[in-house]
Design brief:
Elements (H helix, E strand, L loop, with lengths): L6 E6 L5 H6 L4 H12 L3 E5 L12 E3 L1 H7 L2 E6 L1 H11 L6 E5 L9 E2 L3 H9 L3 E15 L2 E8 L2 E5 L7 E7 L2 E8 L1 E5 L7 H4 L11 E7 L9 E4 L4 E7 L4 E4 L3 E4 L5 E16 L4 H9 L7
Parallel strand pairs: 1-2, 1-4, 2-3, 4-5, 5-6
Antiparallel strand pairs: 7-8, 7-18, 9-12, 9-16, 10-11, 10-15, 12-13, 13-14, 15-18, 16-17
Length: about 300
């Protein structure tokens, strides 16, 4: 069977050991996947940031920008963190992504490493489900100037300092004042991020097709301060009114230190991440598998 995708970028963390660590070649898993892709008629590339790990590989290395311009598929091998990082960077190019889970949980890298070949063969031939995930565009504003700018697929989180007390946050949605909140922090999560930190903090699950965000307080001072679902068309503005050593995290992969008076502005990005799943895939299948909803049933 010939692949419908001619140029495929192999993206992931390379885990060298033994002789392979000394030679600098791809580890067994990544090299096996590359060989499999070639057998399906794909020209395989690897991401440039892993160049040190692949110096003796037969695959050409491309920057993320070159992958976006030259490849028609990204095959991501790793955990959800790996997918979050590359998904944000490739979203503006519209390159679809398939995730092979090499991590622990795997909500968005959902193909098992054990049987990836049988799963990928029909997908590479064009039999797949496509799933679009919205991105959040966040800016930290200080005295009217942007001091930090980032995209997030999961969430934007404002946290108190490790050794300080609660933070006080002034929250507005769509230019309407909501409340001043005292808490350990506040999470703005996308549907994708609703199964991450927001879930641990008591937030609801959002189906990926829901055009909304969930605003979840972290250990709020007022117990009636509950999570709320918001339309993602509205801008969310959070101002740091009080609290020391506060910070803003974006997908827990980038961080900005905050000063009193700083504003975090969150808008829906113009870009979306394209995920491809096996034919017949369902978000509810993922929930049953990852959250063990079937356990204890008849």
């Amino acid at each position: 069977m010939t692949s419908s995708f001619r140029h495929v970028a192999l993206i992931g963390k390379y885990q060298a050991s033994g002789v392979r660590a000394q030679s600098g070649a791809l580890d067994d898993v990544m090299e096996d996947i590359g060989t499999f892709l070639e057998a399906q008629g794909c020209e395989v590339f690897v991401e440039q940031s892993q160049a040190d790990a692949i110096v003796q590989s037969r695959y050409a290395a491309l920057t993320v920008e070159e992958i976006g311009q030259r490849c028609d598929l990204g095959l991501v091998v790793g955990g959800d963190g790996t997918m979050l990082g590359i998904g944000r960077r490739l979203a503006c190019y519209g390159v679809p992504l398939i995730g092979i889970n090499r991590g622990r949980l795997g909500f968005i890298t959902d193909i098992s490493l054990d049987n990836y070949q049988a799963t990928l063969i029909p997908m590479l031939a064009g039999e797949f489900e496509e799933d679009h995930r919205s991105l959040m565009h966040a800016q930290v504003m200080r005295d009217g100037e942007t001091v930090f700018d980032a995209l997030a697929m999961n969430d934007v989180v404002v946290n108190r300092g490790a050794t300080s007390g609660m933070v006080e946050l002034r929250v507005s949605v769509g230019r309407h004042f909501v409340a001043n909140q005292r808490a350990d922090g506040l999470i703005i999560a996308s549907p994708t991020g609703s199964t991450a930190y927001a879930l641990s903090a008591g937030g609801p699950l959002l189906h990926p097709a829901v055009p909304g965000w969930v605003l979840v307080p972290i250990a709020p001072h007022t117990l009636s301060n509950r999570p709320i679902l918001l339309p993602d068309a509205d801008e969310v503005l959070i101002e740091l009114v009080g609290g020391r050593d506060a910070s803003a995290n974006f997908d827990m992969q980038s961080l900005a230190s905050l000063a009193i008076g700083d504003q975090i502005v969150v808008r829906r990005s113009d870009f979306r991440v394209r995920f491809l799943h096996p034919k017949g895939w369902s978000y509810f299948d993922t929930l049953r598998k990852k959250l063990h909803w079937n356990e204890g049933g008849s």
